[in-house]
């Protein structure tokens, strides 16, 4: 077990909690800068593989892991203990269970950064709300990483853009500077809930786009679907968290577009399989990756029972995935509601 921290007074230590493609991409991004990385992985075999071969065997296996920059941990408490920043990069459905081994004391005086593009099932909490309610983390000590950005393009060092949101703009600016590099531009933003809800909802829209594609609807329909989706996101976000925001900015519209259209979008892929006739279970088994939109649509649908926002796309996806309405029937009805 490693007990010595790599952190120095001039190099901030950043803990990354998670071992998936986005966590691996964040390791690559941060390895470009003057930081020390403390990477926690649940799977001991994966950890040992990375230690030996400097590659994650399960995700983005072409990305080299720099052992001089990255320290591996099987103990989450130990990984977090020596860090000034803690990035959470676990699918939303598993965040609560993963963090259960930590307490509020473990997060004291640290900046928590959510890289989760989902919502906690059952509780219907955003990750920022989970950190505030269960770990007493102050909003000024919380940041959110949003897109538009896919892990696969980070692995290829394609020019990419990130949004760093925090109620404390200085905090967002500080972390944006840490994460920016030669192929990443990071922009600060103060609209935490708007950015976070938009990141959740764009996955639902990508599911709808995938379902429509699986049903052989064409580009013309998808253009109408996405433009109506932006209006749906606007209605929901402005009702739940009204404030001054530009929903045409990259954090909102840009993230929606890349998730709805990209070949790397797992939510679009999942939806495409559903549209082609896969059951939810068979699609999940074949993908072997989490499509955040599957859990998100149930949470957003339930949250909206309180607000009553007009959300025909969300409703159609919910009916397909949770009420077993045939995709062709649900999308066939939806197309008459779009303008």
Automatic annotation (TrEMBL):
Enzyme class: oxidoreductase
InterPro entries xref list: 6-PGluconate_DH-like_C_sf, 6PGD_dom2, G3P_DH_NAD-dep, G3P_DH_NAD-dep_C, G3P_DH_NAD-dep_N, NAD(P)-bd_dom_sf
Classification via Pfam families: NAD_Gly3P_dh_C, NAD_Gly3P_dh_N
Active site: 202
A GO term, aspect molecular function: NAD binding
SUPFAM superfamilies on file: 6-phosphogluconate dehydrogenase C-terminal domain-like, NAD(P)-binding Rossmann-fold domains
Keyword Transmembrane belongs to the record: no
Functional description taken from the UniProt entry: Catalyzes the reduction of the glycolytic intermediate dihydroxyacetone phosphate (DHAP) to sn-glycerol 3-phosphate (G3P), the key precursor for phospholipid synthesis.
Protein name: Glycerol-3-phosphate dehydrogenase [NAD(P)+]
Gene: gpsA
């Amino acid at each position: 077990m490693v007990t010595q921290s790599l952190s120095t007074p001039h190099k901030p230590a950043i803990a990354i909690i998670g071992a998936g493609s986005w966590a691996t991409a964040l390791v690559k991004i941060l390895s470009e800068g003057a930081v020390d990385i403390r990477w926690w992985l649940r799977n001991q075999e994966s950890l040992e593989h990375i230690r030996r071969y400097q590659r994650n065997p399960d995700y983005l296996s072409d990305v080299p892991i720099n052992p001089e920059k990255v320290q591996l941990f099987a103990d989450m408490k130990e990984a977090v203990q020596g860090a000034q920043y803690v990035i959470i990069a676990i699918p939303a459905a598993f965040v609560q269970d993963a963090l259960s081994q930590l307490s509020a004391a473990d997060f004291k005086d640290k900046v928590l950064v959510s890289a989760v593009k989902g919502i906690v099932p059952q509780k219907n909490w955003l990750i920022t709300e989970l950190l505030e309610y269960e770990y007493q983390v102050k909003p000024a000590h919380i940041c959110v990483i949003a897109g538009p950005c896919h892990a696969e393009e980070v692995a290829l060092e394609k020019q990419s853009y990130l949004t760093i949101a925090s109620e404390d703009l200085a905090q967002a600016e500080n972390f944006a500077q840490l994460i920016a590099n030669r192929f990443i531009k990071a922009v600060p933003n103060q609209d935490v809930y708007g950015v976070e809800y938009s990141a959740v909802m764009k996955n639902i829209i990508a599911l709808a786009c995938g379902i429509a594609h699986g049903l052989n609807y064409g580009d013309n329909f998808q253009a109408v679907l996405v433009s109506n989706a932006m209006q749906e996101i606007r209605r929901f976000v402005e009702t739940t968290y009204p404030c001054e925001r530009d929903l045409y900015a990259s954090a909102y519209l840009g993230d929606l577009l890349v998730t709805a259209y990209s070949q790397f979008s797992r939510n679009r892929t999942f939806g495409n399989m559903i549209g082609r006739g896969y059951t939810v279970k068979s699609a999940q088994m074949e993908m072997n990756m989490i499509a955040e939109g599957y859990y998100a649509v149930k949470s957003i649908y339930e949250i909206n029972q309180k607000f009553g926002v007009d959300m025909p796309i969300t409703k159609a996806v919910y009916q397909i995935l949770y009420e077993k309405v045939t995709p062709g029937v649900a999308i066939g009805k939806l197309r008459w509601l779009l303008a």
